[in-house]
Design brief:
With 258 residues, the chain is an all-alpha fold. The protein has 12 helices and no strands. The protein folds into 2 domains: 138 residues, Hypothetical protein af1432 (Orthogonal Bundle), CATH 1.10.3210; 83 residues, no CATH class. The radius of gyration is 18 Å and the shape is globular.
Length: 258
């Protein structure tokens, strides 16, 4: 069997995604949401790889891992009708199982397959292990950055335009203008990413995605975030109090120039 290139793997992924839509049209909107997200993450991961001057083989592996990073979401939606891992299953682990069981990586040499599987498994952990092989670390960091860069505008678009918040997309948060969970703000003030389990209000979700600035690994990713003006969109509706003004300054400093 010839080693599949990215175009072959992309075709496999799209066929896989379409099979879920065909079998479960009631959840079609959520499957399509994830397919669109995946293709944009692929583009962003390739942009990061180019800007960072990655070696060609590392850049190829980054693209492959980005393509398959959310494969587990399809099984998650079909079985549990949610994107919330803590009330269903870890979607990264579901993705690894799906990639192996459904033959999506067939034909990749073992070493390359191992990097893709490792990056899929690690793409949603709160922090990466200290000791990882250099190529796996580089690939995983790029996928994590690209994932965040796409999720932010998708969430903002929904928060800004949806008449009612979709509980699947927004993890069951509620609209409560002016309210936020103090413990989430505590996390950001300490330079930590926010804890998903504490999300209660729309503003909590905004603080969550703002906290991802701390976890962007590559300068290219921070530049993309800044160029797109995402921080202003994230923070604009939050209350204008002293703690949040100070937080804005801290996040702007962490983000750096466009």
């Amino acid at each position: 069997m010839n080693t599949p290139d990215l175009s072959v793997l992309r075709g496999r992924f799209l066929d896989y995604a379409e099979s879920f839509i065909a079998a479960d049209p009631a959840q079609g909107e959520h499957y399509r949401l994830k397919t669109g997200h995946t293709l944009r993450v692929l583009d962003l991961a390739q942009e990061i790889a180019r800007e960072e001057g990655m070696a060609p083989d590392t850049a190829d592996l980054t693209a492959m891992a980005a393509l398959f990073h959310d494969t587990g979401r399809y099984r998650q939606i079909r079985q549990y009708h949610t994107f919330v891992d803590r009330i269903s299953e870890n979607h990264a682990r579901l993705g690894v199982r799906a990639l192996l069981a459904d033959g999506l990586l067939a034909g990749l040499p073992p070493a390359r397959r191992g990097v893709v599987l490792g990056a899929v498994f690690l793409h949603n952990v709160r922090s990466l292990p200290q000791r990882l092989p250099p190529v796996l670390r580089a690939v995983t960091m790029a996928v994590r950055d690209a994932d965040k860069l796409d999720i932010v505008p998708v969430l903002l678009e929904h928060l800004e335009t949806a008449p009612e918040l979709d509980p699947v997309i927004c993890m069951n948060v509620t609209r409560a203008p002016g309210r936020y969970t103090p413990e989430i703000l505590d996390d950001l003030e300490q330079g930590r990413t926010a804890d998903y389990s504490r999300l209660r209000f729309e503003n909590d979700m905004r603080l969550l995605v703002a906290s991802w600035i701390y976890d962007l690994n590559y300068a290219a990713a921070r530049r993309i975030y800044a160029r797109r003006g995402l921080l202003e969109r994230v923070l604009a509706p939050l209350p204008d109090d002293q703690r949040l003004r100070a937080l804005r300054r801290r996040l702007e400093q962490a983000l750096g120039p466009a």
